[in-house]
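testing teh design pipeline on a random one, pls ignore if ur not involved
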Protein backbone atom coordinates (compact mmCIF):
# COMPACT_ATOMS: atom_id res chain seq x y z
CA UNK A 1 0.00 0.00 0.00
CA UNK A 2 1.24 3.44 -0.93
CA UNK A 3 0.14 6.47 1.10
CA UNK A 4 1.10 10.06 1.75
CA UNK A 5 -0.43 13.04 3.53
CA UNK A 6 -2.08 15.95 1.76
CA UNK A 7 -4.08 19.03 2.68
CA UNK A 8 -7.20 20.27 0.89
CA UNK A 9 -6.17 23.42 -0.95
CA UNK A 10 -8.24 26.54 -1.54
CA UNK A 11 -7.82 26.03 -5.29
CA UNK A 12 -9.31 22.52 -4.90
CA UNK A 13 -12.44 23.78 -3.14
CA UNK A 14 -15.87 24.95 -4.23
CA UNK A 15 -18.04 27.81 -2.97
CA UNK A 16 -18.86 25.79 0.16
CA UNK A 17 -15.17 25.04 0.87
CA UNK A 18 -15.67 21.39 -0.10
CA UNK A 19 -12.97 19.61 -2.09
CA UNK A 20 -14.43 19.18 -5.57
CA UNK A 21 -14.93 15.78 -7.13
CA UNK A 22 -12.61 16.61 -10.06
CA UNK A 23 -9.94 17.59 -7.50
CA UNK A 24 -10.37 14.23 -5.75
CA UNK A 25 -9.94 12.40 -9.06
CA UNK A 26 -6.80 14.41 -9.83
CA UNK A 27 -5.46 13.53 -6.37
CA UNK A 28 -6.07 9.83 -6.97
CA UNK A 29 -4.40 10.00 -10.36
CA UNK A 30 -1.34 11.73 -8.90
CA UNK A 31 -1.18 9.12 -6.14
CA UNK A 32 -1.00 6.24 -8.62
CA UNK A 33 1.67 8.07 -10.63
CA UNK A 34 3.79 8.75 -7.53
CA UNK A 35 3.39 5.13 -6.46
CA UNK A 36 4.70 3.86 -9.79
CA UNK A 37 7.53 6.39 -9.93
CA UNK A 38 8.70 5.50 -6.42
CA UNK A 39 8.79 1.83 -7.43
CA UNK A 40 10.83 2.64 -10.54
CA UNK A 41 8.07 1.62 -12.97
CA UNK A 42 6.55 5.02 -13.75
CA UNK A 43 6.41 6.99 -16.97
CA UNK A 44 10.21 7.32 -17.22
CA UNK A 45 10.42 3.52 -17.23
CA UNK A 46 7.48 2.99 -19.58
CA UNK A 47 8.07 5.71 -22.18
CA UNK A 48 11.29 4.18 -23.60
CA UNK A 49 9.35 0.92 -24.03
CA UNK A 50 6.51 2.75 -25.84
CA UNK A 51 4.13 1.76 -23.04
CA UNK A 52 1.50 3.76 -21.21
CA UNK A 53 -1.24 2.99 -18.70
CA UNK A 54 -4.67 4.17 -19.92
CA UNK A 55 -7.67 4.19 -17.61
CA UNK A 56 -10.84 2.43 -18.75
CA UNK A 57 -13.10 2.89 -15.73
CA UNK A 58 -13.59 4.75 -12.46
CA UNK A 59 -16.02 4.02 -9.65
CA UNK A 60 -15.70 6.39 -6.69
CA UNK A 61 -17.70 6.46 -3.45
CA UNK A 62 -18.00 9.69 -1.45
CA UNK A 63 -18.81 9.09 2.21
CA UNK A 64 -18.52 12.79 2.99
CA UNK A 65 -16.99 15.87 1.41
CA UNK A 66 -13.41 16.79 2.43
CA UNK A 67 -13.23 20.40 3.59
CA UNK A 68 -10.63 23.14 3.12
CA UNK A 69 -8.03 23.13 4.77
CA UNK A 70 -8.46 19.59 6.13
CA UNK A 71 -5.49 17.23 6.43
CA UNK A 72 -5.99 13.89 4.71
CA UNK A 73 -4.16 10.70 3.80
CA UNK A 74 -4.43 9.49 0.22
CA UNK A 75 -3.57 5.90 -0.61
CA UNK A 76 -3.60 3.35 -3.40
CA UNK A 77 -2.70 -0.25 -4.17
CA UNK A 78 -3.27 -2.74 -7.00
CA UNK A 79 -5.34 -5.81 -6.24
CA UNK A 80 -5.14 -7.74 -9.53
CA UNK A 81 -3.29 -7.94 -12.83
CA UNK A 82 -4.77 -9.90 -15.71
CA UNK A 83 -3.11 -9.92 -19.14
CA UNK A 84 -2.90 -6.28 -20.19
CA UNK A 85 -5.22 -5.07 -17.39
CA UNK A 86 -4.49 -3.74 -13.93
CA UNK A 87 -7.07 -3.16 -11.19
CA UNK A 88 -6.34 -0.57 -8.51
CA UNK A 89 -8.08 0.79 -5.40
CA UNK A 90 -7.76 4.27 -3.92
CA UNK A 91 -8.91 5.92 -0.71
CA UNK A 92 -8.96 9.14 1.26
CA UNK A 93 -8.89 9.05 5.07
CA UNK A 94 -9.24 11.86 7.59
CA UNK A 95 -6.95 12.51 10.56
CA UNK A 96 -8.94 10.02 12.65
CA UNK A 97 -8.26 7.29 10.08
CA UNK A 98 -11.87 7.18 8.86
CA UNK A 99 -12.58 6.63 5.18
CA UNK A 100 -14.14 9.60 3.44
CA UNK A 101 -13.81 8.26 -0.11
CA UNK A 102 -13.04 4.92 -1.76
CA UNK A 103 -12.41 4.19 -5.42
CA UNK A 104 -12.01 1.33 -7.84
CA UNK A 105 -10.30 1.67 -11.20
CA UNK A 106 -9.47 -0.43 -14.25
CA UNK A 107 -6.36 0.35 -16.31
CA UNK A 108 -5.07 -1.02 -19.61
CA UNK A 109 -1.39 -1.10 -20.54
CA UNK A 110 -1.06 0.14 -24.11
CA UNK A 111 1.65 -0.03 -26.74
CA UNK A 112 1.11 3.55 -27.85
CA UNK A 113 3.25 3.21 -30.96
CA UNK A 114 0.92 0.54 -32.38
CA UNK A 115 -2.14 1.60 -30.33
CA UNK A 116 -2.89 -1.88 -29.04
CA UNK A 117 -3.03 -3.49 -25.58
CA UNK A 118 0.26 -4.88 -24.28
CA UNK A 119 0.67 -7.69 -21.74
CA UNK A 120 2.05 -6.33 -18.47
CA UNK A 121 5.76 -7.29 -18.32
CA UNK A 122 6.78 -9.36 -15.30
CA UNK A 123 9.29 -6.73 -14.16
CA UNK A 124 6.49 -4.17 -13.92
CA UNK A 125 3.91 -6.46 -12.32
CA UNK A 126 6.45 -7.82 -9.81
CA UNK A 127 7.33 -4.30 -8.66
CA UNK A 128 3.90 -3.95 -7.04
CA UNK A 129 2.47 -5.74 -4.02
CA UNK A 130 -1.15 -6.69 -4.65
CA UNK A 131 -3.53 -6.50 -1.70
CA UNK A 132 -7.11 -7.49 -0.92
CA UNK A 133 -9.50 -5.10 -2.58
CA UNK A 134 -11.42 -2.53 -0.56
CA UNK A 135 -14.86 -3.21 0.85
CA UNK A 136 -16.97 -1.06 -1.46
CA UNK A 137 -19.46 -1.37 -4.30
CA UNK A 138 -18.11 -2.89 -7.51
CA UNK A 139 -20.57 -2.10 -10.27
CA UNK A 140 -20.41 -3.40 -13.86
CA UNK A 141 -17.92 -1.44 -15.97
CA UNK A 142 -20.43 -0.67 -18.72
CA UNK A 143 -22.62 2.37 -18.04
CA UNK A 144 -26.02 2.44 -19.71
CA UNK A 145 -26.89 5.54 -21.70
CA UNK A 146 -30.52 6.54 -21.07
CA UNK A 147 -32.67 6.33 -24.18
CA UNK A 148 -35.95 7.73 -22.89
CA UNK A 149 -36.60 10.99 -24.71
CA UNK A 150 -37.95 12.76 -21.61
CA UNK A 151 -34.70 12.07 -19.72
CA UNK A 152 -32.60 14.15 -22.07
CA UNK A 153 -32.18 17.76 -21.01
CA UNK A 154 -33.20 19.85 -23.99
CA UNK A 155 -30.93 22.75 -24.95
CA UNK A 156 -31.65 25.41 -27.55
CA UNK A 157 -27.93 25.71 -28.14
CA UNK A 158 -26.11 22.38 -27.70
CA UNK A 159 -22.61 23.12 -26.36
CA UNK A 160 -19.40 22.17 -28.14
CA UNK A 161 -15.98 21.91 -26.48
CA UNK A 162 -12.94 22.17 -28.69
CA UNK A 163 -9.95 20.25 -27.36
CA UNK A 164 -7.01 22.55 -26.62
CA UNK A 165 -3.51 22.06 -25.22
CA UNK A 166 -4.61 22.46 -21.60
CA UNK A 167 -6.85 19.37 -21.92
CA UNK A 168 -3.93 17.10 -22.85
CA UNK A 169 -1.39 15.16 -20.83
CA UNK A 170 2.06 13.88 -21.81
CA UNK A 171 0.46 10.97 -23.68
CA UNK A 172 -0.96 13.42 -26.23
CA UNK A 173 -4.61 12.67 -25.47
CA UNK A 174 -7.22 14.27 -23.20
CA UNK A 175 -6.40 13.44 -19.58
CA UNK A 176 -9.03 11.30 -17.86
CA UNK A 177 -9.73 13.97 -15.27
CA UNK A 178 -10.54 16.53 -17.97
CA UNK A 179 -13.62 14.58 -19.07
CA UNK A 180 -14.90 14.76 -15.50
CA UNK A 181 -14.23 18.51 -15.31
CA UNK A 182 -16.16 19.00 -18.57
CA UNK A 183 -19.08 16.88 -17.32
CA UNK A 184 -19.33 18.87 -14.07
CA UNK A 185 -20.08 22.03 -16.03
CA UNK A 186 -23.47 20.49 -16.98
CA UNK A 187 -24.75 19.01 -13.70
CA UNK A 188 -26.26 20.83 -10.69
CA UNK A 189 -23.69 22.09 -8.17
CA UNK A 190 -25.93 22.11 -5.07
CA UNK A 191 -26.23 18.32 -4.78
CA UNK A 192 -24.18 16.05 -2.52
CA UNK A 193 -23.11 13.31 -4.91
CA UNK A 194 -22.55 9.85 -3.42
CA UNK A 195 -21.05 7.93 -6.33
CA UNK A 196 -19.21 8.65 -9.56
CA UNK A 197 -18.74 6.16 -12.38
CA UNK A 198 -16.85 6.89 -15.59
CA UNK A 199 -16.51 4.62 -18.60
CA UNK A 200 -13.85 5.71 -21.09
CA UNK A 201 -14.54 4.48 -24.61
CA UNK A 202 -12.07 6.21 -26.93
CA UNK A 203 -9.44 8.95 -26.78
CA UNK A 204 -9.91 12.57 -27.77
CA UNK A 205 -6.97 14.55 -29.15
CA UNK A 206 -6.00 18.13 -29.93
CA UNK A 207 -8.51 19.78 -32.24
CA UNK A 208 -11.29 17.24 -31.64
CA UNK A 209 -14.79 18.34 -30.71
CA UNK A 210 -16.67 17.12 -27.64
CA UNK A 211 -20.47 17.37 -27.62
CA UNK A 212 -21.91 16.95 -24.10
CA UNK A 213 -25.45 15.64 -23.60
CA UNK A 214 -27.01 15.57 -20.14
CA UNK A 215 -29.63 13.01 -19.06
CA UNK A 216 -31.56 13.03 -15.79
CA UNK A 217 -32.90 10.09 -13.80
CA UNK A 218 -34.61 9.54 -10.47
CA UNK A 219 -31.41 9.77 -8.43
CA UNK A 220 -28.68 10.28 -11.00
CA UNK A 221 -27.33 12.34 -13.86
CA UNK A 222 -25.57 10.91 -16.88
CA UNK A 223 -23.33 13.04 -19.08
CA UNK A 224 -22.33 11.58 -22.44
CA UNK A 225 -19.32 13.26 -24.07
CA UNK A 226 -19.36 12.38 -27.78
CA UNK A 227 -17.57 13.31 -30.98
CA UNK A 228 -19.29 15.18 -33.80
CA UNK A 229 -20.67 11.90 -35.15
CA UNK A 230 -22.29 10.93 -31.85
CA UNK A 231 -19.78 8.26 -30.79
CA UNK A 232 -18.98 8.61 -27.06
CA UNK A 233 -15.52 9.42 -25.76
CA UNK A 234 -16.69 8.96 -22.18
CA UNK A 235 -19.87 8.33 -20.20
CA UNK A 236 -20.07 9.89 -16.73
CA UNK A 237 -22.71 8.87 -14.18
CA UNK A 238 -23.29 10.75 -10.91
CA UNK A 239 -25.61 9.36 -8.25
CA UNK A 240 -26.96 11.36 -5.32
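output:
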Amino acid sequence: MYTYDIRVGFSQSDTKHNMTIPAIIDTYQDCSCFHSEDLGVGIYKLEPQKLVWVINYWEVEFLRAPKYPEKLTVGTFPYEFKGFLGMRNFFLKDEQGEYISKANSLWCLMDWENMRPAKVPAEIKDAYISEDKLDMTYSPRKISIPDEEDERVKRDDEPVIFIEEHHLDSNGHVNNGQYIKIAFAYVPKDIEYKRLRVEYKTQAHLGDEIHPVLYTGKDFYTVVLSNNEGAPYAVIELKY
